Amino acid sequence: MNRRDIPILEITLSFDSNSSEPLYLQLYSFFKKEIVEGRLIPETKLPSKRKLSTHLQISQTTVESAYQQLIAEGYVKSEPRKGLFVTQLEMGFFNEKERTSPHDKLQKNPIVNPIKVDFGHGNIARNEFPFPTWRKLTVQSLYEDESHLLLSGHRQGDLPLRVEIAKYLYQSRGVQCEPDQILIGAGTQYMVTFLTMLIGRDRVYSMENPGFHRTREAFKDQGVKLLGIELDQEGIKMEDLVASKASVTYVTPSHQFPMGMVMPISRRMELLKWAHETESYIIEDDYDGEFRYTGKPIPSLQGLDKHGRVIYLGTFSKSLIPSLRISFMVLPPTLLSRYQDRFSIYKQTVSRLHQQTLYLFMKEGHWSRHLQKMRNTYRKKQTVLLALITERLGEHVTVIGVDSGLHILLKVHNHMTESELISHAEKMGVRVYPTSVYYDGDPHPNIPMVLLGYGGVSEREMQTGIHLLQTAWELF
Amino acid sequence: MNRRDIPILEITLSFDSNSSEPLYLQLYSFFKKEIVEGRLIPETKLPSKRKLSTHLQISQTTVESAYQQLIAEGYVKSEPRKGLFVTQLEMGFFNEKERTSPHDKLQKNPIVNPIKVDFGHGNIARNEFPFPTWRKLTVQSLYEDESHLLLSGHRQGDLPLRVEIAKYLYQSRGVQCEPDQILIGAGTQYMVTFLTMLIGRDRVYSMENPGFHRTREAFKDQGVKLLGIELDQEGIKMEDLVASKASVTYVTPSHQFPMGMVMPISRRMELLKWAHETESYIIEDDYDGEFRYTGKPIPSLQGLDKHGRVIYLGTFSKSLIPSLRISFMVLPPTLLSRYQDRFSIYKQTVSRLHQQTLYLFMKEGHWSRHLQKMRNTYRKKQTVLLALITERLGEHVTVIGVDSGLHILLKVHNHMTESELISHAEKMGVRVYPTSVYYDGDPHPNIPMVLLGYGGVSEREMQTGIHLLQTAWELF
């Protein structure tokens, strides 16, 4: 048996401090990839924990955890008093496939390219999360006298939480509903899938184009006919919608995703009139409507609707915790009856323990305080980002969608394509995101646009990031 | 304005101590129902907190919470220094609809009939849940240095938890898989819905008849053709399955739901041979396979399968916490590729915080200790229940499905129909459950059967319950 050591200097990985993955998983992924792709051959000996931790300047515990994971999954075997060795793998089946999510294509090899700044739009300012409060409220449900919370709760979600959501929606979003109309569920894609069942798959569906790709694919996977409707400055184009013969439409009026415009009241009224006259349904996805920075708030479509044609979708992913997976929808009377008559056999998909924590968080006033604080945080972040862009990138870029939300778009006038913009940025250690993935079919914009989320980016990182983008995109 | 007080003695509700609802919600529901159904008319004054708490022997805080809920939802208004009054409701739209889930029909009016013993099969022995451990592990993830757990995790579920699940499945269920094959998701119905997409809706589906109604409806709602296949003593009838031309089948071989038989190895091999030869898929739902009391364990279908035809479904609902909503499935290679190629755009539906807690719970050995303890608990409960049944109900009943799981079936030979059995029991304060709902179409058994879950029933309650059933069913 020929065994070899890995020269320690061959291990040249940098950690991505913006990654949502802990260090040990990044290290684990590095080794796994090296093994799966054949660069570390069977019987190669891994460096000792001590050596590797010194070399990479990480703790021995981190190395230990990564090694344990590799052993558990069988990539590496431990031989007592000899060390750790790469095992002989059955290849083929377990090779990592190419992932098809458009973002993943960009997120591959997070270790190989040292990323200094990641303008990912799913991130939040997690250092501002009220950990002590959330801990205290979480623990309250975990005593034996609250043990009823271990059993299945109401299929629509527990009533106390629905009461709090209804109150909040009325006060801050102008949504008019009873707690009975609210359905809590595990994420927007789950909701959209459920809605196609509730509304019926025989209708023609439509949505904004460009629009939220995860929703679009969820509609398509439900086998419904889905039409993309173009946008103008005010949002979805009414004449195209009317001509389309669709009788369901999905829109993001508070902050169009990804373009960022806020639908004015006139367009809202037109849309509601269309829905009323054609007995169509409007799915209003208010995914980040909590964060509005300029102008007067415009009532939600749901709040303006007098004829029960709007389904309101909301989420706690942007405003609270992305990984909590709590979304909700408000059903109009007709769909509520249909739900109660025909689909009440579906169990609730969100943990009742989390529901209880969130209920207490809202009821005790922490939620409104948190929102207020985050609104200020994000407003400040956006101000800093826009100032940096003006200063560094100047007239070479056009900024789009600054009224609300946690991301902006940049049109870059330097004759690079979208993928050049992204790859040049990545080479400099900055991750920005494509917008072409949000278009269904061909009609991409003439001038390429990239998306920059700033929710999880510190001011210092913004400074570095925009500076590096100036160089990457050669904007002098 | 004519106002009247409610004479305190008119309030005759009993609380259901087995209910998963806290007292204040039961009280709230009582008043809401009285108001919605017109028995409490507008402007009626509610009793003071003090009076009602004395009358019902509950705390003033409980009354206060119920009243707050009624006020929040607008059923009652508070007038300073005067008291609480029933409001004038807009009726029609917000009336509670009949729910269609078969169990709900029985669970209506939980307050009006004082239920002493509830043989509900979704319950667990919640007093044995290791609250201190779960609390400690939960809190560990809620500190700022673990804040990456707030961000979206891997779409299949976080790797550390998948590693633990894979290890557990191999050791105790004989399931052979890599962590990469595991998909975590929010409940069996979500999984089944996702699977129709993954397997394709053009195939003909089939499942055991009788079988799990929630799964059956989920298949049907996905628009697939679904055939019910009869059972014999060993499980799904092979000749009927072969003749059906179905190319997907859903089975519960560890403990057929609801009939309780364990599929012997010979039938398992036949089923696998069929799947291999016809390129069909078997969905193996191992919903409570952890709890087996007699005979040798039989390996899972997945573990016996050499050709990648089995999808293994598991859940933590029976074995840990029903309201946590964590299920998982193990995909065979063909479906794993399809998932990675075409459906990786779907986000994970289970909270990452819960995933982390469960991961730690498994990794630190609490999970296997908990399972061992619960297996003993449930075995003991079943022994007591069976002894009581023999003693009290004797030859008038046939007990079915005692090898595993958390429920048994009773065939009752007293010429009552199923609904008579249930309603007579309910009049005596005992809740038992129908089995007819698990049949698709007509072929109900000749002799009616009811279902008794015992996971959440104490030995004392069993004694009371079986005693009352003897009277209710006139078995002397």
Number of helices of chain A: 16
Number of strands of chain A: 18
Helicity of chain A, in percent?
25-40%
The CATH C-level class name of the largest domain in chain A: Alpha Beta
Distance between the termini of chain A: 59 Å
Fourth-tier CATH superfamily name of the largest domain in chain A: Type I PLP-dependent aspartate aminotransferase-like (Major domain)
Characterize the largest beta sheet of chain A: strand count, sense, and whether it forms a barrel. Answer: 8 strands, mixed
Strand percent estimate of chain A: 15-25%
Second rung of CATH, namely the architecture of the largest domain in chain A:
3-Layer(aba) Sandwich
Which residues of chain A form runs of ≥5 with pLDDT under 50?
90-112
CATH topology of the largest domain in chain A: Aspartate Aminotransferase, domain 2
Question: Helix/strand-derived class of chain A?
Answer: alpha/beta
Shape of chain A: globular
Subunit arrangement of the protein: homodimer
Show the largest interface: A-B, 83 and 83 residues
Counted up, domains of chain A total 3
Radius of gyration of chain A: 25 Å
Overall mean confidence score, pLDDT of chain A: 88
Placed side by side, the strands forming the largest sheet of chain A appear as 6-13-12-11-10-7-8-9
